[in-house]
Amino acid sequence: DAKTTQPPSMDCAEGRAANLPCNHSTISGNEYVYWYRQIHSQGPQYIIHGLKNNETNEMASLIITEDRKSSTLILPHATLRDTAVYYCIVIRGDDKIIFGKGTRLHILP
Amino acid sequence: DTGVSQDPRHKITKRGQNVTFRCDPISEHNRLYWYRQTLGQGPEFLTYFQNEAQLEKSRLLSDRFSAERPKGSFSTLEIQRTEQGDSAMYLCASSLVGRTRTDTQYFGPGTRLTVL
């Protein structure tokens, strides 16, 4: 079973920040938090990952709580192309991925 | 484009036929994974290779499924005697294990199989 809990769906207005939450209360010390997204009929796309510290790249920011039991993916200026299913995954670096159902993010024009 | 390619992108076959899919990983990646995704579900792990060695197989991988990575580069996934329940998207991912503390998996575009 997936080790994460995500809301099944969320809406966000175009141009606003999309904040996607994820709970991973049973995360182990050597497990990373990864985020992928999947646009309809495409393969999952890697977004970002982190261990303890907050991370930022050209796509998104990842905020991990101090106790590491939850995290938030932030898309700073959502566009219609960000409409996708977003998967939060907890994984030791060299292991297979166990996907949950993810969050279906709808960007509203 | 992640650098992982899969061929074909779409395959339609009749029940009982054999099909084979190919995955070409990112060139220096030593690990290759296969996943399967049915409609409305997240991808499910099938098997993975470290170089040419197949190290783990899911119980989803029945005897009709076989995967190979003969030279540690590309991989093939064959399904014999296809059934309608095999209709799914078959995804390949690759990663570089061992040189960094995290080993991000990069996915290909997938092969969509339809069994009639």
Description:
The complex is a heterodimer of chains A (109) and B (116). By secondary structure, chain A is mainly beta. Chain A has strands spanning 9-13, 18-23, 31-38, 45-50, 55-56, 61-64, 70-75, 84-92, 103-108. In chain B, the strands form two sheets. In chain B, strands 2, 4, 5, 6, 9, 10 and 11 form a seven-stranded mixed beta sheet that branches. Chain B is mostly beta strands. Chain B has strands spanning 5-7, 10-13, 19-24, 31-37, 44-50, 53-57, 65-68, 75-79, 88-95, 106-107, 111-115. In chain B, strand 5 (44-50) and strand 6 (53-57) form a beta hairpin. The chains are: A mainly beta (109), B mainly beta (116). At the A-B interface, strand 3 and strand 4 of A face strand 4, strand 5, strand 9 and strand 10 of B.
SSE layout and pairing:
The complex is a heterodimer of chains A (109) and B (116).
Chain A: E1 9-13, E2 18-23, E3 31-38, E4 45-50, E5 55-56, E6 61-64, E7 70-75, E8 84-92, E9 103-108
Parallel strand pairs in A: 1-9
Antiparallel strand pairs in A: 2-7, 3-4, 3-8, 5-6, 6-7, 8-9
Chain B: E1 5-7, E2 10-13, E3 19-24, E4 31-37, E5 44-50, E6 53-57, E7 65-68, E8 75-79, E9 88-95, E10 106-107, E11 111-115
Parallel strand pairs in B: 2-11
Antiparallel strand pairs in B: 1-3, 3-8, 4-5, 4-9, 5-6, 7-8, 9-10, 9-11
